């Protein structure tokens, strides 16, 4: 085995998956993580792969949903993140929700136990002079390293503000008002079909709530800070400011739900809470990321029917997320063009979401290991979810308007012969996923043969 060691900076989703994939391929890895010695606004522990916002990996439907397809591809590639997510799965209808603390503890334990992986604590403040290396420091890259990246790339890092949703103690939810039900009763088991707690609102209650959101005290940005929000994670009060009906057609939509306490009356709006731990003692308010000040959060969220006596395990917050202009800076192998011994992976590349971050770590780990071990990997087929994402960040996106992106079928090459629009999407999405699975399986096959 080669003596060249892959240095991976950052132990989040992307860094953890990159380390696992490279080590499993036979490469030696040193994984650097600054926590707990150097903390961040959002993290609570020193565990690797800590989930800091939602506990959801989103849809697990690998036939009709692009992120579900990404789950499938990662599982097929032996993903550690997906294996531990499956091991600590919580009921969430058709979604994959995770018991966050046991998940992170298990990822950490598996990485520490791997004979090819060494974990070193401490902050890395500059780019490695020699390689191979993977930068996977995520959206909360430390200031010193962010400055080093900016100095090397010759341009300022792009940024947006990401908001964290509050978590409520289950025992403080009034179940004489709220009820358990997944939208459209999704899920194969009764537990999954009742994975969400729903709080109904009348029209008057909704209008009053919107007024309070708009009027609430908000956190101020520091002087000189400018950024754009990522549309997939907008603070709830920003959505309210965009139009009074926005929330009712977004996270508070009342469709697919029937209130058993008053089954003949359709709620005007519904607030959903999703289970956040295996014990069922904690629930996060779905889609309620916020930049309201803490006192305002408590007052406004207690206006929600069923949450009038709510106790909060964690209130929402806001933090700056940093990402690079990947289309101009990275090549198709995820390498920094000016320093090709360095790869970037995860949210810092401009993908959005836990799964997408881990997926880019998976690719970076495999690509770096192949390079170290003297192999060559063909380009990832763009027809796959992996390929669609990596193509988007390394050249498919318009650099001038580059923004963080979740995986979606709009990134895939079109499938010919299928009806466009909503009516044809079931067959069209199935064609996308069938094509992707075949292409991904074919891409993995030679690597499995080499490993054997």
From TrEMBL:
Catalytic activity: uridine(54) in tRNA + (6R)-5,10-methylene-5,6,7,8-tetrahydrofolate + NADH + H(+) = 5-methyluridine(54) in tRNA + (6S)-5,6,7,8-tetrahydrofolate + NAD(+); uridine(54) in tRNA + (6R)-5,10-methylene-5,6,7,8-tetrahydrofolate + NADPH + H(+) = 5-methyluridine(54) in tRNA + (6S)-5,6,7,8-tetrahydrofolate + NADP(+)
MF GO annotations: flavin adenine dinucleotide binding; tRNA (uracil(54)-C5)-methyltransferase activity, 5,10-methylenetetrahydrofolate-dependent
Positions of the MnmG N-terminal domain: 6-374
Keywords: Cytoplasm, FAD, Flavoprotein, Methyltransferase, NAD, NADP, Transferase, tRNA processing
Residues that bind FAD: 10-15
Protein family (similarity comment): Belongs to the MnmG family. TrmFO subfamily.
Cited function: Catalyzes the folate-dependent formation of 5-methyl-uridine at position 54 (M-5-U54) in all tRNAs.
Name under which the protein is recorded: Methylenetetrahydrofolate--tRNA-(uracil-5-)-methyltransferase TrmFO
Organism whose genome encodes this protein: Roseicyclus persicicus
The organism's taxonomic lineage, starting at the top: Bacteria, Pseudomonadati, Pseudomonadota, Alphaproteobacteria, Rhodobacterales
Gene: trmFO
């Amino acid at each position: 085995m080669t003596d060249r060691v892959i240095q991976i900076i950052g132990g989040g989703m992307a860094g953890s998956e990159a380390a696992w994939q490279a080590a499993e391929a036979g490469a030696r890895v040193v994984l650097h993580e600054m926590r707990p010695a150097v903390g961040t606004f959002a993290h609570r522990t020193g565990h690797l792969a800590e989930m800091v916002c939602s506990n959801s990996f989103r849809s697990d439907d690998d036939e009709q949903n692009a992120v579900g397809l990404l789950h499938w591809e990662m599982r097929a590639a032996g993903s550690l993140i997906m294996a531990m997510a499956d091991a600590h799965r919580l009921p969430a209808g058709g979604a994959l929700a995770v018991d966050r603390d046991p998940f992170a503890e298990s990822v950490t334990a598996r990485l520490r136990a791997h004979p090819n992986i060494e974990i070193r604590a401490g902050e890395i403040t500059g780019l490695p002079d020699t390689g191979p290396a993977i930068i996977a420091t995520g959206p909360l890259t430390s200031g010193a390293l962010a400055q080093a990246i900016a100095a090397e790339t010759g341009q300022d890092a792009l940024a947006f503000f990401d908001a964290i949703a509050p978590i409520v103690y289950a025992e403080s939810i009034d179940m004489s008002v709220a009820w358990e039900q997944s939208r459209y009763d999704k899920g194969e088991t009764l537990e999954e079909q009742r994975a969400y707690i729903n709080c109904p609102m009348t029209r008057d209650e909704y209008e009053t709530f919107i007024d309070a959101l708009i009027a609430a005290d908000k956190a101020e940005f520091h002087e000189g800070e400018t950024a754009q929000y990522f549309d997939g994670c907008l603070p709830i009060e920003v959505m309210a400011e965009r139009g009074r009906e926005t929330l009712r057609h977004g996270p508070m939509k009342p469709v697919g739900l029937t209130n058993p306490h008053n089954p003949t009356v359709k709620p005007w709006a519904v607030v959903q809470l999703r289970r956040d731990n295996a014990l069922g003692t904690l629930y996060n308010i779905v889609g309620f990321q916020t930049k309201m000040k803490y006192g305002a959060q408590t007052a406004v969220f207690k206006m929600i029917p069923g949450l009038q006596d709510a106790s909060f395990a964690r209130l929402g917050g806001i933090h700056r997320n940093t990402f690079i202009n990947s289309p101009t800076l990275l090549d198709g192998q995820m390498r920094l063009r000016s320093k090709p011994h360095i790869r970037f992976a995860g949210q810092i590349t401009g993908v959005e979401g836990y799964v997408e971050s881990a997926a880019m770590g998976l690719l970076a780990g495999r690509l770096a290991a192949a390079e170290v071990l003297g192999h060559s990997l063909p380009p990832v087929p763009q027809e796959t979810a992996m390929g669609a994402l990596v193509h988007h960040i390394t050249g498919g996106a318009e650099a001038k308007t580059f923004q963080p992106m979740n995986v979606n079928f709009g990134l895939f090459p079109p499938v010919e012969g299928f009806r466009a629009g909503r009516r044809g999407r079931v067959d069209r999405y199935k064609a996308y996923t069938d094509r992707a699975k075949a292409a991904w399986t074919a891409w993995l096959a030679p690597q499995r043969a080499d490993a054997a």
